[in-house]
Amino acid sequence: MSFKIIDGKEIADSLRGELAKKADQYSKKYGKKPTLAVVKIGDNPATKIYVNMKEKACNDNGIEFIGHYHEKISEEELIELIENLNNDEKVNAILVQLPLPEDIDDNEIIEKINPEKDVDGFTYYNVGSMYTGTERLLPCTPLGVIRMLERSGIEIEGKHAVIIGRSNIVGKPLAALFLKRHATVTVCHSRTKNLKEHTRNADILCAATGVPKMVKASMVKKGAVVIDIGISRVDGKVVGDVDFDNVKEKASYITPVPGGVGPMTITMVIHNTLQAALSQKGEYL
After folding, report:
1. Which stretches of the chain score pLDDT less than 50?
2. Which helix (H) or strand (E) holds 204?
3. Residues 227, 251: contact at Cβ < 8 Å?
4. What is the pTM of this model?
5. How far apart are CA 182 and CA 257, in angstroms?
6. Which end of the chain lies in a sparser environment, N or C, as judged by fewer CB atoms within 10 Å?
7. Active site amino acids
8. Which are the contacts of 78, defined by CB distance < 8 A and separation ≥ 6?
9. In angstroms, what is the C-alpha Rg of the chain?
10. What is the DSSP letter of 115?
11. Could you give all domains of the chain from N- to C-terminal order, each with its CATH number?
12. Which residues sit opposite 66 in a β-bridge?
């Protein structure tokens, strides 16, 4: 059957154009740009790439970017930095780039972020709000997946969404967002028995495991929408969780890696920064 590639970069570019206009309106109204502070600890090359991508996206779309980079910092010093950013009225949004060094507790640090400035949507307050149906600041990758489906004209209501992966960053929040939009949701993971039986029932199949090409064509129902959220490097090549070349022949829509969900995640950082800035003024996107 014929399939359509969901071009995440194209959708992201369109959304960024809209967000840039709204950021410009904010700047003219309040005399300052919406401002994101990003904290990066250590010298992990992948982390540096992600932060650089976020900085470029912000600079290109009307968001002020402030970087706080430290090769080494104690947990106490990091908490003090976050508290200073919480109290800085010029800063609308805060992002602590994960993972942090092993001697720093990720959860402890995330909970120090003011929920109104929590651009990743990871604080207990924002997570709890999401699960109870009040969408405030939402995790960027799951929100990017939902926006991608909406912009592609793919109906969610009444569909069976199957998610492979139950991480706090992607799998669990994505399930909550699907439920809010009236999908029936199945979450699979490493201990799921007869995985194929679940995935072959999916109208929308989302893979977020980090296992290269684990989703084979035999696991996919004909006509399913396949969203590949995973990313790995194999023999110098970037690949996803889905065996793209074979699965595409069974899918109605499918995302590539790279160029699928990735650009949407970065775009949602811009979206959430603007959302945070507006919310602090009693306005909303």
Report:
1. none
2. strand 204-207
3. no
4. 0.96
5. 28
6. N
7. 54, 97, 120
8. 39, 41, 70, 96, 100, 104, 109
9. 19
10. G
11. 31-115 (3.40.50.10860), 140-262 (3.40.50.720)
12. 37
